[in-house]
Amino acid sequence: xxxxxxxxxxxxxxxxxxxxxxxxxxxxxxxxxxxxxxxxxxxxxxxxxxxxxxxxxxxxxxxxxxxxxxxxxxxxxxxxxxxxxxxxxxxxxxxxxxxxxxxxxxxxxxxxxxxxxxxxxxxxxxxxx
Length: 129
Known about the structure:
Blueprint: E1 2-8, H1 9-19, H2 21-27, H3 30-37, H4 43-61, E2 73-77, E3 83-87, H5 89-97, E4 100-109, E5 113-122
Antiparallel strand pairs: 1-5, 2-3, 4-5
Helix pairs in contact: 1-4, 3-4
């Protein structure tokens, strides 16, 4: 299953400017906030691309944010700076119940836009008869 989302960076900036920490703490983990704000000139792009990634995850799952919340999904980076999706225990259990064994994510952003692509990899069930 695939999920894609694109966000205007200016939209996220306006929300952050209007709601500040209230918005940030509702949507992002402490680690995501720290990573995004360490580079002031890139913070809005970093928040926007993580916002897009979370949207893409729930689109791929087909649940919206009814079953899984914003903070159940965390976008982290590995040692090679590759983005990864880290799930809460609740979200991980949900994905296991759906037969999802891996979540692949690709992120990109420019000054104006942030885009995320998510691919959910399910366990192979064999051909149906």
